[in-house]
Design brief:
With 301 residues, the chain is α+β, with helices and mostly antiparallel strands. The protein is 41% helix and 21% strand. α8 packs across α9. The chain is globular and about 70 Å long. The N and C termini lie far apart (70 Å).
């Protein structure tokens, strides 16, 4: 690192990515916020040398042209420097600013986890014991890249997957971080056997009776009376589908029934089966059936 003085004496910035207007000169382009999970695409200002962190655990994925980045981890005697290229990721635990320096205006996607989202997953994955995640910068991790791409599509399309889809991706990402980079305790045993039949039936009945609702992973876990961290994997073990995919298929199946009645406008069908609008309905309906709702209706009647 070029001579810039003692890192401990330089300015420190903590960003709250759950806030609509964070206390930092960054610019959001798209955002999704559900409870303790937020996903943001943003542009950062140049940083000539300051400690930057967040009030949440964050995973930042680089989305713009390569840039040279310098940093010094807390407690480290020396600094590091690396060329950060597209899809490289940084893991930064909550309230742990890292002294960094870069030029230009890098674009990043940031996934931010509040404790309310993360703690149930940690408790489930680690049998209630603590786990340590340390800062890591300049990672090349294919799993993080794939999840980031899925969120990128979701943001570009205006969030058609809703709360359940984003929370599902968030849970998968959190578990990957804990299992791959967590330190301190042994991992809990993986889910085996799925949900008990009475719990699964209770969840399916709840879904079918509330297809117009925007389900959250915690909502469905509460219906099953299991933890959110356990629910997603157990539901897939029982049904062969993620909760998001299962609900999407139930919505499309019910939509097919409603489309047979020409007196119901397609926009109303979309709302009745839980899509935010007709555009989101059309996108998802075509993905599953290969036809738009209007074409399906015209060919069925």
């Amino acid at each position: 690192m070029a001579d810039g003085g003692d890192p401990e004496s330089r300015s420190t910035v903590l960003i709250d990515f759950a806030a609509p207007h964070p206390a930092y000169d960054l610019t959001y382009s798209e955002r999704i916020v559900y409870g303790g999970l937020s996903v943001s695409r943003c542009t950062l200002p140049p940083n000539p040398g300051s400690a930057v962190g967040a009030t949440q655990l964050t995973i930042a994925v680089h989305e713009s042209e390569p840039l040279e980045m310098e940093w010094q981890l807390p407690g480290a005697a020396t600094s590091e420097s690396r060329l950060i290229t597209e899809d490289m990721a940084h893991i930064n635990p909550a309230d742990q600013p890292i002294f960094q320096r870069w030029s230009g205006h890098p674009r990043i996607m940031v996934v931010a986890f509040d404790r309310i989202f993360l703690d149930p997953i940690i408790n489930e994955a680690y049998d209630g014991n603590g786990v340590v995640l340390r800062p890591r910068l300049g990672l090349s991790d294919p799993t993080i890249v794939n999840i980031a791409r899925a969120w990128r599509r979701e943001l570009n399309e205006g969030g058609p997957g809703g709360q359940l889809y984003s929370e599902g991706l968030g849970t998968v990402l959190a578990l990957h971080l804990l299992r791959t980079y967590g330190e301190g305790v042994a991992h809990a045993s993986p889910v085996k056997g799925g949900l008990a039949a009475f719990r699964l039936n209770r969840v399916i009945d709840h879904i079918d009776a509330n297809l117009d609702a925007d389900f959250g992973l915690r909502d469905l876990a509460a219906v099953a009376e299991v933890s959110p961290g356990y629910f997603g994997e157990a539901f897939k073990a029982s049904t062969g589908l993620t909760p998001f995919r299962f609900i999407l298929e139930r919505r499309v199946r019910r939509a097919k029934e409603l489309l047979l009645d020409r007196d119901i406008p397609i926009a109303e069908v979309a709302l009745r089966v839980g899509f935010a609008n007709q555009s989101h309905f059309t996108v998802n309906f075509k993905k599953l059936t290969g036809k738009t709702p209007s074409r399906f209706r015209n060919e069925s009647i």
